[in-house]
């Protein structure tokens, strides 16, 4: 595919992204250290794969997306529709993908959980049947099936990398494979300008502030447990809310 033609297709699959800079609808800063950065366009990634039993061919393999950590790929379906999907490892140009009701070995193929064998790596999994994929969408992410309970409401037990386990409906869809760009976690930003172009503003130390601005501020600070600007523990303190969720079978450690 020619470069100019492919660039037009990719541009049609993107929309403009309006910056909010960590502010709410009243313009008040609710998330600190956000602002500036380069202009970005949001790529419309297909999380649902509407076309059942319709094959698609991979045209472009690795496409960088500044919004997400994983790579994406351009796919052309047999009905002439172009689409962007999350790119798993070992997916090459010319490979075919499809949404099937029966299990068939193939990277990036999507199936219901009820037909997938135990231990198969999955990504881009639905949380509820009929919704778009919400689970395991970051770089290097994967989950796998631990067990199936056909007599207990047709539930499937899945496990995350954090050892947390969910009980989901057996009809939710998942894609086979593990997402690419697994070395993203080791990426280091060596200069301050890189973070500024990513939309991250500088972070000021609490001890350099006044007492009215931070708990660590002022010359009278004599130590203690490090806290955030809001007084919550900054290192080692629990920040996760204990939300009651019927789908969580086992919490992760910590």
Short structural summary:
By secondary structure, this protein is mainly beta. Helices cover 6% and strands 24% of the residues. The chain is globular, with a radius of gyration of 22 Å.
Question: How would you explain this protein's 3D organization?
Answer:
The protein has 254 residues and is mainly beta. Helices cover 6% and strands 24% of the residues. The chain contains two helices and 15 strands. The strands form four sheets. Strands 7-14-8-11-12-13-15 form a seven-stranded antiparallel sheet, with no helix packed on it. It has a four-stranded antiparallel sheet with strand order 5-4-3-6, with no helix packed on it. 19% of the residues are buried. The model has no long low-confidence stretch (mean pLDDT 87).
Parts with pLDDT < 50 across at least 5 consecutive residues: none
Characterize the largest beta sheet: strand count, sense, and whether it forms a barrel: 7 strands, antiparallel
| Order of SSEs | HEEEEEEEEEEEEEEHE
Mean pLDDT: 87
Topology, element by element:
Blueprint (H helix, E strand, L loop, with lengths): L2 H10 L1 E3 L24 E3 L12 E8 L8 E6 L4 E5 L9 E2 L12 E3 L8 E3 L1 E2 L6 E3 L7 E7 L5 E5 L5 E5 L3 E4 L15 H6 L50 E3 L4
Antiparallel strand pairs: 1-2, 3-4, 3-6, 4-5, 7-14, 8-11, 8-14, 9-10, 11-12, 12-13, 13-15
């Amino acid at each position: 595919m020619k470069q100019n033609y492919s660039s037009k297709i990719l541009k049609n699959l993107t929309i403009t992204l309006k910056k909010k800079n960590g502010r709410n609808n009243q313009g008040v800063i609710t998330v600190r250290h956000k602002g500036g950065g380069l202009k970005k366009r949001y790529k419309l990634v297909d999380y649902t794969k509407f076309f059942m039993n319709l094959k698609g061919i991979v045209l472009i393999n690795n496409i960088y997306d500044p919004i997400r950590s994983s790579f994406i790929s351009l796919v052309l379906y047999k009905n002439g529709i172009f689409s962007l999907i999350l790119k798993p490892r070992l997916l090459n140009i010319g490979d075919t993908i499809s949404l099937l009701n029966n299990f068939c070995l193939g990277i990036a193929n999507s199936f219901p959980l009820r037909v997938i064998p135990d231990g198969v790596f999955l990504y881009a999994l639905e949380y509820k049947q009929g919704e778009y994929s919400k689970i395991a969408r970051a770089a290097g992410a994967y989950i796998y099936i631990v067990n199936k309970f056909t007599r207990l409401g047709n539930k499937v037990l899945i496990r995350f990398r954090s050892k947390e386990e969910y009980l989901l409906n057996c009809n939710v869809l998942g894609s086979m494979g593990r997402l690419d760009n697994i070395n993203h976690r080791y990426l280091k930003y060596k200069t301050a300008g890189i973070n500024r172009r990513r939309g991250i503003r500088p972070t000021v130390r609490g001890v350099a502030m006044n007492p009215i601005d931070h708990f660590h501020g002022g010359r009278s600070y004599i130590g203690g447990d490090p806290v955030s600007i809001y007084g919550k523990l900054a290192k080692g303190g629990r920040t996760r809310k204990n939300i009651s969720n019927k789908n969580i079978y086992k919490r992760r450690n910590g």
